[in-house]
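User: Fold this; tokens only.

Assistant: Input:
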Amino acid sequence: MHNYITPLVKLFGQNANAANAKPMAKYMKNLFPYLGIKTPPRRELLKQFFKENGKPEITELKQISRELWELPEREFQYCAVSMLQLYKNKVDASFIELYEQFIITKSWWDTVDAVAANLIGSLFKKYPEMIKPHTEKWQASGNMWLQRTALLFQLNYKAETNVKLMFDLIRCNLGSKEFFINKAIGWILRQYSKTDARAVIDFVEKTDLASLSKREALKWLNNHSTT
């Protein structure tokens, strides 16, 4: 284990909460064991850890985050994402391999969405030439989580959204029976509706979306309608 991680594992172990661990694991379909450290105290513990040990060196970031990802308890995958977020605007293009690894291993919506929208979204803003080859590869992969990533990496782009790409990727996924794909379609449309309501309304009206996608896409607009 990397020397930097050892005190983090010890600190989290000292703050484990067995009473919380079982319901937290159940909420995530019992896919992963938990220490039982909820989000607010986890963030405080990580803040304490950084204060006592400093932030990781960017040159060690890949190794540290990989080792955290390999630990069984889910809180350590969250820590890996948090550490990567510290450097999301500073890392180079090679980090896409690490991000892809995290998308397809120990995959569930909690980590996939954080990596897609925050880490990959930031990386692609820095290296826009990476967008086309990677989204095409992900869409063709047959891996639901990579396909969800292609849909969601622009989630925080607002006016910088490549609308044509967003619509094209949605069309590629029409007819999907996967809940997480149809939910992602609705989510990205709902988010973009805050930037360009008319574009989303027109797309929804003209596109044969799954009922879940359509409902999610229009949710924000319906809740903020002045008519």
